[in-house]
Specification:
Structural class: mainly beta
Helix content: under 10%
CATH superfamily: YVTN repeat-like/Quinoprotein amine dehydrogenase
Strand content: 35-45%
Number of helices: 2
Strand order of the largest sheet: 3-30-29-28-27
Number of strands: 31
Mean pLDDT: 75
Length: 417
């Protein structure tokens, strides 16, 4: 299994459609769905929601490649600090597979060694509880997959919203539903929360939280289109379905659609305020490769040791996970900057499969200098999980921002944009 971002209900629907068409499939769809649920992650996506799946059923297993993203940055910058004239080679060319970080003496994250710190300075969810950055705790009617700021309330994505697929529901400032839900694959907010782009049925929308105005960016898109982000100039970034169940990046700018990688399928994973993007440039059974491109389309850097996710608010750093992901959660996370030759920060989980350890389920930027990580302690089993939100500073210091929270595997913590 090769997984690159969030896994949720759309994966289950996609797997069901494929499994039903496979002759002699040795496992039931219910078994596949339970496995999918076990390995689903935050923003179920993004990265997640903002999720697209490559799923090829084979007897005895399923190979999946994920793409989804969000969180453009908050400040316009001239160029990320990792600007280069050409691609950067793999960090570990002699490894057994791309992204193999074993044997490199990377520090681990240990929950029992962390002190208590301040509460998260951004919204997060646990099952039906929405914890806001200003300290409120709202009880929701549904355990939504992810939530986006929308005026004085939110838009909430529900992967179990209807038999037809995922739906989006508007919520008021108290978390109560307003109006009827509509089909959607999710959305992507700007880091300052001023803009939100999202799919409504077959239309890509752009909402301004300052004015309350909503405009249709593009009408008549495929229902599998995934919103990625908005840059400081108002250009909207999104992924459209391509051949072999892949996604391919697009940019809507100055009233026209741009294909930033003509003739090549490259999903966009994130965008900065200055219009720099990270793209997934290669997927294989062994891992993936990601690259950063400037607004003109020139490749600035690449890595096959990590799978990149979101830019920091100032656009000079990017979060990353392993190039090869398997199982319930990632075994490592990193912050990449400079020329990507050396991570600014990297942490791992050395827990064995027998002792699940403190799994790294999700990571998002809290600000330019801090990362929030959702961690799960599954030592007592998946049905008796203990969940935490951990704050990691770029100087390496760590603290617990929330938790422990006891809940089953489907009631974990979701870090929001």
């Amino acid at each position: 299994m090769n997984e690159h971002d969030t896994l949720g209900g759309r994966l289950a629907q996609d797997l069901q459609a494929r499994a039903d068409g496979l002759p002699g499939h040795p496992v039931s769809f219910d078994q596949v769905k339970r496995t999918a649920g076990r390995i689903r992650r935050r923003r179920a996506a993004a990265t997640s929601a903002a999720v697209a799946v490559v799923a090829v059923g084979v007897p005895g297993g399923t190979w999946m490649a994920m793409q989804g993203s969000d969180a453009p940055d908050q400040h316009l910058v001239a160029a990320p600090s990792f600007h280069r004239d050409g691609p950067t080679p793999s960090l570990d060319p002699d490894a057994t597979a791309p992204g193999d970080r074993s044997g490199m003496s990377i520090p681990s994250l240990e929950l029992d060694e962390m002190a208590r710190g301040d509460a998260p300075r951004r919204d997060w969810m646990q099952d039906k509880e929405l914890h806001t950055a200003d300290g409120r705790v709202l009880t929701l009617q549904t355990a939504y997959s992810t939530i986006y700021r929308y005026d004085d309330g939110w838009l909430a994505l529900d992967y179990n919203g209807s038999d037809a697929g995922a739906t989006m529901q508007k919520l008021d400032g108290s978390g109560a539903p307003v109006g009827d839900p509509f089909p959607s694959t999710g959305g992507a907010s700007s880091a300052d929360g001023q803009h939100l782009t999202y799919l409504s049925g077959n239309d890509l929308m752009l909402h301004d939280n300052r004015t309350g105005d909503t405009t249709t960016v593009r009408a008549g898109l495929p229902a599998e289109t995934v919103a990625v982000g908005v840059d400081a100039e108002g250009a909207v970034y999104y992924n459209v379905p391509a051949k072999d169940h892949m996604l391919d990046g697009r940019v809507w700018k100055d009233g026209a659609e741009i294909d930033p990688s003509p003739g090549v399928t490259q999903p966009i994973r994130s965008v900065s305020g200055a219009g720099f993007t990270t793209r997934l440039i290669e997927i294989s059974d062994m891992g993936s490769c990601s690259a950063v491109f400037d607004p003109a389309g020139l490749e600035q850097a690449r890595t096959c040791d990590f799978s990149t996710s979101e830019f920091s608010p100032d656009g000079t750093k990017v979060l990353a996970g392993p190039a090869y992901g398997d199982g319930f959660a990632d075994l490592s996370f990193a912050v990449l900057g400079a020329d990507w030759a050396t991570p600014l920060l990297e942490r791992v989980n050395y827990g064995s499969s027998e002792e699940q350890g403190d799994s790294l389920v999700d990571s998002v930027w809290e600000d330019d200098d801090h990362v929030l990580i959702a961690m799960a302690d599954a030592a007592n089993g998946y049905d008796k999980m203990k969940w935490y939100v951990v704050r990691v500073a770029l100087d390496g210091t760590t603290e617990i921002a929330a938790g422990p929270i006891t809940g089953a595997e489907y009631e974990g913590i979701a870090l929001l944009q």
